[in-house]
Structures are given as structure tokens and as C-alpha cells.
Amino acid sequence: MPNMRADKNPMPMQDPEERIHNFGEVTLGYSEEAAIDEAQRCLHCKNAPCMAGCPVNVPIPDFIERVKAGDADGALAVIRAQNALPAVCGRVCPQETQCESRCVRGIKGESVAIGRLERWAADHATGKAAATAPTEKNGKRAAIVGSGPASLTCAGELASAGWDVTVYEALHTPGGVLMYGIPEFRLPKDLVRSEIDKVRAMGVKIETNTVVGRTVDVEELLRDADAVFLGSGAGLPNFQGIPGESLCGVYSANEFLTRINLMKAYTFPRYDTPIRVDGRAVIIGGGNVAMDAARCARRMGAEVTIVYRRSMQEMPARREEIEHAMEEGVEFRLLTNPTEILGDENGFVKAIRCIRMELGEPDERGRRRPVPVPGSEEDIPAGTVIVAIGNSPNPLLRKTTADLPTDARGRVIADENGRTGMKNVYAGGDAVTGAATVILAMGAGKRAAKAIIEDHP
Ligand code: FAD
Ligand code: SF4
Ligand code: SF4
């Protein structure tokens, strides 16, 4: 008989007072007992509606069945057949809008904690489920640009079909946003490295410090490869264009997070990465990136204020991230929009000028448009300002690949299977959709791999 309790097993967590002083993981993962108990809440529905909410089609009831028996290796083997990065997805997938949003247990209570069970399987397996290289190569070669989740998935799928795959990554470390963006306390980097090692174990070669469009271009890659996949992400930060954005102490969230995560500024002086977090840090934006920047700044010792121009209801960040930020003492100034960043006589930030907003008519996406309230300006003292209002694809590939179709926002145009219309060139992930999610990028990488295999019999 399934366990009909309405609530999920709670996730054990570091205490907020303790965790704001370290970069260790906030959520600690289920014990075996909790995982088995949670797995018993699954009804093993024949039509498995939860699977329709997973962009990579993880066989959810099958893996949960194995968790129920305490068999982490068996569960992981089932997951891995569809998902190359289970320890990552179990942590950062927005499950509440994906698989868990379709779970029938969510109708009268909370859905089964699918993501937490996926994480448990990945964390507790002994490694027997690791993928290995196929013994037979098929003579086909693929070049993959970027090494984020879209590219790693595409690479893994092609390698397991016998392709010779080389990934070209601009940075010195592979992993994309998983390594440089999402903080250690949400996604430990050892774990990402270990997932990438499994992709390497499938025979995928990764060449770092290679900027496609500079070190080598797409046309050159096409001379050696049967197919090229562009998984270059959306790493170019947007700015508001207000006065003061070039003052010292103003960062894009990407730069701030890269310094902290990839360049390990939080371990200073062990890693000699300079970063300025002085007094109060003001974060502009209301998405997940803003929450990550705020929570990093908090751990670096700052008082932190998030400034967001709409209300809490419109805030795009995950509820869980907002709650965690609040528990950690981050202040939220809603319906507030910056108009200018003010500097001192030495060119350093000293305050941010904001105006109050009220919500007007809905915009084209149905969200009520924020309208400034005249005469309501105020200055918030700040030593650091972090701009987290979204990212766009970097224009380099577009500028150096004459035939690559792109839209007005710089995104590569590709169909749902990643075909770009440029012969033998495929694309997927944030480079095509603009900033989205890990699992959508992985789904795109997987579909593109399938199209590449179909087009190159
Ligand atoms: P990316 O992960 O961006 O990887 C692209 C890679 O391509 C990068 O390594 C880049 O250096 C490389 N590259 C770019 N141009 C070139 C070039 N010319 N030559 C060679 N290499 C190149 N999603 C979630 O699902 N859950 C979360 O909790 C979450 N949190 C996030 C937090 C932050 C701070 C950020 C920034 C994003 C977050 N996201 C989250 C979004 C998610 O990380 C992205 O949607 C996802 O990583 C996109 O994957 P991708 O493979 O398309 O690109
Ligand atoms: Fe859910 Fe993500 Fe796992 Fe798919 S990969 S089952 S969406 S947690
Ligand atoms: Fe289990 Fe929920 Fe999926 Fe049904 S919908 S199989 S209860 S996880």
C-alpha cells in the first residue's frame, strides 16, 4: 500500500544563521529512511503523467520503484539512461513547474518529491551506473561549441551512438553556468566535475580555453566534423543603461558570480581573486540570478537589499530561492526601480537612486506593467551594486558565422530539433531560447543529437 501522507518528507537544511557564514550546501539531502518513505508516496501510475513534465523523459515511476527498495545504484541506472546529469537536475531543476507539477499526488496535497529522490539516487549510488564509451565507433565526428548542459547532453548522446566528439569551451573549466554561475551552496562544484568526468568517460574530448569565433571558427570546425552543435548559452549580461553603471563597485551578476564561483573569491586569500563587497550590496532584479547574487553577497559579509520593480507576485525567481534568501536576512524592496547609481569623488559607488513604482495595465505577457510614481525618488546607500536583469546570447558566433540565422535578440534560429537551416549546424539551449533552465537546455541537446544522428546515417 502506498503511503498516503499529504506532505513531502521535509528536506534537511543548514540553519540560516550558520549558513550565511559558509558556502557549504544549504540543503543536505534525504537520509535512506526518508528517501524510502518518500518513494512509498508514489502511486506508480500506469500513464505516469509526471514523465510528460520532464524534458528528458526520465522514467520516473521506474526509478522511484528502485528507491523504494533502497537500491540507489538501480535507480541511478534507470535515470542515467535518459539523463546525463542526475545529481545536477535533482538539485537545480525547477521541479515544481516540471515533473512535479504533473504528479497526481499534487492534486490533494504535495506532489512526490521527484527531484529530491533523483538527488538521493545520484548521491548514494556507488558509481556502478557510470556510463562508459561504446566499443564501436561509427567514423562520424561532431564538434560541439560550449560545455554547458545543452552541449554536455548532446555530446554524451552522440558519443554513446559511436560518434567521435570534441567539445570546445571558451573558459578554462567546462560546465557552463553549472560551474561559473550557480553558487557552490546550491550546486557543489565537485559534483559537477564528477558528472563531467562521466561524460569524458564516454569518450568525449573537451578542449578548454578555445573561443570559437576567435581561436577557430565554425566554418573551420565544419571542415573536420560531420556536424557542429552550438550550445554557447546566453552569457552576455543586460544593463538598464542608467547613469553610473561604470562606477567601481558595479558588477553584472555574471561577473560577480563568476568571480565568486569559478574564480573562488570566497576562499580569499587561498584564491587571489579580487572582489568588492562593501557595506550594503544592492541587487537589481527579481529572478533566480538575482537571488544567487544576493545570497552570495550575504555570505561575503554584506547587508543585502534586492530592488525589484514589480511586486512579489510577479517575481520570476523560484519560491524556494526567495524563501531561502529571506531566511538569510536579504531585504526586499519591491515596486522600486533604480534611476541612477551615485558615486563618490574617487569613482566608487556610494548609493543607488530609486523611484517607487505602481502596477498599471498588463503587458504583452500578462504581467502588470510597473509605472513610476512621480516625486518618489530616494537614495539607498550602497558600496556594491549588482545588476541581475537578464542575459542575452554573446554576439561572437553570429558575427563570425556568415550563414548562421539569428533573430533580432541575437538568438540562433533553430527548429525544435536543433536544425538551424545552415548545413550540418545545429543549436540548442540558451543560445536558441535565451536564458532558460538546465533541463530545457538538456532536452534541446538531446533532441539535437537525435536529429544529427538521423541526418547522418
Ligand atoms: P550555458 O550553461 O550558458 O553554457 C554555455 C557555455 O558555452 C559556457 O561555458 C560558455 O563559456 C561557452 N561558450 C560561449 N560562447 C562560446 C564560444 N564562442 N566558444 C566556446 N565556448 C563558448 N537553471 C535551472 O534550471 N535551475 C537553476 O537553479 C538555475 N540557476 C541559475 C543561476 C544562475 C546564476 C544563472 C546564470 C542561470 C541559472 N539557471 C538555472 C539557468 C541555466 O543555468 C541555463 O539555462 C543553462 O545553463 C543553459 O545551458 P546551456 O548549455 O545552453 O548554456
Ligand atoms: Fe524532474 Fe528534472 Fe528529474 Fe526530469 S530531470 S524528472 S524534470 S527533476
Ligand atoms: Fe508517482 Fe506522481 Fe508519477 Fe504518479 S504522477 S507515478 S504518483 S510520481
Give a structural overview.
With 457 residues, this protein is α/β, with parallel strands linked by helices. The chain contains 16 helices and 16 strands. α13 links the parallel β8 and β9. α4 (72-80) crosses α6 (114-124) and α11 packs across α12. The relative contact order is 0.13.
Write the layout of secondary structure elements.
Blueprint: H1 16-19, H2 32-39, H3 60-68, H4 72-80, H5 86-92, H6 114-124, E1 141-145, H7 149-160, E2 164-168, H8 177-180, H9 189-201, E3 205-207, H10 218-224, E4 227-230, E5 236-237, E6 250-252, H11 253-261, E7 280-284, H12 288-299, E8 303-307, H13 319-327, E9 331-333, E10 336-343, E11 349-362, E12 368-372, E13 378-381, E14 384-387, E15 391-392, H14 396-400, E16 425-427, H15 430-433, H16 438-455
Parallel strand pairs: 1-2, 1-4, 2-3, 4-16, 6-14, 7-8, 7-14, 8-9
Antiparallel strand pairs: 5-15, 10-11, 11-12, 11-13
Helix pairs in contact: 2-3, 3-4, 3-6, 4-6, 5-6, 7-16, 11-12
The chain binds flavin-adenine dinucleotide (FAD) and iron/sulfur cluster (2 copies).
One iron/sulfur cluster (SF4) binds at residues 54, 56, 58, 60, 83, 89-90, 93, 95, 98-99, 114-115, 118, 439.
Helical residues, percent? 25-40%
Shape: globular
- Return the average pLDDT rounded to an integer: 94
Number of strands: 16
Question: What percent strand?
Answer: 15-25%
Mind describing the biggest β-sheet?
5 strands, parallel
Determine the structural class based on helices, strands and strand pairing.
alpha/beta
Q: What is bound: which ligands?
A: flavin-adenine dinucleotide, iron/sulfur cluster
Q: N-to-C terminal Cα separation, in Å?
A: 48 Å
